[in-house]
Design a protein that fits this description.
Serine Threonine Protein Phosphatase 5, Tetratricopeptide repeat, mainly alpha
Length: 328
């Protein structure tokens, strides 16, 4: 990483140059680069991440539908159509759009079709999991299945199991489960989410991104309960927070190669280590982040969310100084 203190940038592709090129083509209404990229993507974790980023960019266009019209038998295009449908439905829900229910059903149908077209692919099941958060009252039977442990709440456990069966410990699948628990009706939602994150992390093998789930819940709790505050307050320096950060560092960061780490996970880990005053350890993670950053969680530490990059830079500089011996 450059050591000149350059301003960080947000790029959904991060260091994935092939994905960035496909995104540029997609934004001009062309789909061949996306098709080629996905055909060359062999590992499920990267496939899951790339399809998610591509769908975010494609959701406002008809590019994927044009691809499917040209190649109606393409399983990859069918999965991408489900991805796009889910993104549109979730956006509609956030914007309280009148077509939310209609888009939800369309996305559900597309995801079901994708489970048949790509039976070994975890992404159609991740799509169905993502749509579960549109049913916080758990009216659908598949969203109130019995949990694997009595201490966990009922939820879309069958959908999670299908995703896990195809790609064990799939990162996005478990994050979608966490999002469902955030919106699930009733009191104690964050307590349930925290219990789930601890359970999932405890089941995960070394190197799994699920070891970071407790850090995400801590950020969500801070966002809801504490409000934006740039100071390093007691929410972050308590021993439990420090332990969660150290555990994620040792169980995930120290057990993975650079190309296996998602940028949101790196940013959450750097934020947690910085917040718990473990500056030297955080400096290692900032080094791995490089010139890119993700607005969450930094945006929650300032009243002006547009200044997330400044918070990131200040934290990075503070941790670098400690690592270089000019600070405690």
């Amino acid at each position: 990483m450059a050591r000149d203190g350059a301003r960080p940038s947000y790029d959904p592709a991060g260091p994935d140059h092939a994905l960035r090129a496909a995104l540029q083509e997609l934004r001009t209404g062309r789909w061949m680069a996306m098709r080629t990229l996905l055909a060359e993507t062999a590992e499920w974790p990267r496939w899951t991440q790339r399809t998610q980023v591509l769908a975010t960019a494609a959701a406002g266009t008809d590019v994927v539908r044009a691809w499917l019209a040209e190649e109606p038998g393409s399983a990859h295009a069918t999965v991408m159509l489900a991805r796009v449908g889910v993104e549109r439905a979730l956006r509609a829900r956030r914007e309280r759009h009148r077509r939310t229910h209609e888009l939800w059903i369309e996305a559900w149908d597309a995801a079901q079709t994708a489970t048949v077209a790509a039976p070994r692919d975890p992404v159609p099941w991740v799509c169905l999991l993502a749509l579960a958060q549109l049913d916080p009252e758990q009216r659908w039977e598949e969203h109130r299945a019995a949990p694997p442990e009595p201490v966990l709440p009922p939820g879309p456990w069958g959908l999670l199991a299908e995703a896990d069966r195809r790609d064990p410990f799939n990162r996005e699948a478990h994050h979608r489960m966490l999002q469902f628990l955030y919106v699930r009706g009733g009191p104690g939602r964050l307590t349930e989410a925290s219990g789930y994150a601890q359970w999932a992390a405890g089941q995960a093998p070394p190197g799994s991104a699920l070891h970071l789930l407790p850090l995400y819940v801590r950020v969500e709790r801070y966002r809801r309960d504490s409000g934006p505050d740039a100071a390093l307050d007691l929410h972050w320096v308590v021993e439990e927070a420090a332990r969660e950060a150290r555990r994620a560092l040792e169980s995930w960061f120290d057990r993975t190669r650079p190309g296996e780490r998602a940028l949101p996970d790196l940013n959450h880990l750097a934020h947690a280590l910085w917040g718990s005053l473990q500056f030297r350890e955080a400096a290692r993670v900032f080094e791995a982040i490089g010139p890119y950053f993700t607005p969450p969680p930094w945006m929650y530490r300032t009243p002006d969310r547009e200044r997330a990059g400044e918070v990131f830079t200040q934290a990075r500089d503070r941790c670098r100084a400690a690592a270089e011996g000019s600070g405690p």
